[in-house]
Structure prediction request, 501 residues.
Amino acid sequence: MNQTISIENLYADLDRSLDAMRSDDGTVQRSRQVVERALEGSDAIYGVNTGFGALASKRIDDDQLGKLQRNLLLSHACGTGDPVPPRITRLMMALKIHALGLGNSGVSLPIFRQLLKFCDLDILPFIPSRGSVGASGDLAPLAHMSLPLIGLGRCWNADRSGSEPATETLARHGIEPVEPGAKDGIGLINGTQLMSAYGAFVLNRAIHLMSAADILGSMSLEALQGSARPFDERVHRIRPHPGQITVAANVRDLLLESEILESHRHCGKVQDPYCLRCIPQVHGASRDALGHAIEVVERELNSVTDNPLVFSDGDIISAGNFHGQPLALSLDYAAMALAELASISERRTYLLLEGHDGLPKLLMSDTGINSGFMIPQYTAAALVSENKVLCHPASVDSIPTSLGQEDHVSMGSISALKLLSVLHNVERVLAVEALTAAQALDFRAPLKPGKGVLAAHEYIRRHVNHAEEDYEVGHDIDTCTRLLQSGELVETVQSAVSGLR
Prediction:
């Protein structure tokens, strides 16, 4: 039985699934037997003994079925542009193995075992990232992924600095190419594994990032001597969006035992700006949107998106499970949700620089000769603005392909590629807030912030020093970005605030 794949435990779940299939590929074998029995009859089976797309009515002779699949991989390997990153290529392969292992694709055992062997040896095909329209699946990228199985195409070289002919890679590992049989080519390239891999990669990172945004917002709130009253549980109980409730609870927990809060509890300030006061509403909405995207992508990871589909009763049905529309819409939505975390973060960074409530302007005591943290906010503003362009939905577009046979496509691959760019921008915007909030909190000493904020501040300070004068700040932004990407910041704070979600 194949392991169910979740976003939160993505890599461990995939490892378990692949381990199960290494020890027992009987489901794949039984599915293949259905295809072989069907070929003994006289029925036309789309993509198995017929042409593809607009050529579906052309019947192929039995002695040409292997060549048909080989030609399919060659003709569809016409992607272009920057390569898919190696980490996502590895995910694509693992997800393809998992999908084929569900037993509705009918591929041959040599092809399936070759895929497993590539994963075992960490052989990564070199895949141009552009060329998929998101239906019939991610045809061009998956064709590039599959060609090295049969000794064609290109792979990443040993140090991942570039590509080399697949023949060289296979020779280095002592692997012989395999020949595709009937159904193999179409089983490999019909599917949503490029979209799914990008989506899973980003959403796996987003789980930590959502909590990090709450931590950084709380750091800024403390540094700016903001009020904790807007996070009162009663406020959120009467507008019970789940994400909003979670974020408000996180902030309350992060602020526990705050000396800074106590020092200004009766200061007379009536309201904070929205970027502080509305953290639960904004972060919470993003949490709910990302939660929806996670549900959709998890369903997709555990689905069969091949065509035609092979069933144990002997039926082989040509249908449309390869259509990427569920992913296209959800990944567009996820990009907008992530972008909003950066948008409100940049506003908090701006506030930190303004010199409110005893903080020095630009967060440095001797300005004029020093510019302080003026320019990191420019960087954050530029990235937030870029995200506004990237968040234009790809899923609202469609251009007919295959001479009109494939007359509505999802463009979900574009949604996926944009989503990764948005993630990278958001991580860097939050890194700027981490840097500036930590600097601002230094000026509140000797008063201590809440225990969760204190844990975050101390963790950042173990990696980045307080700045007394101008320096090459870009290095520290990169450091804070790595801290966010690793998830270690969140894990450190969770050890101090056990209920943080």
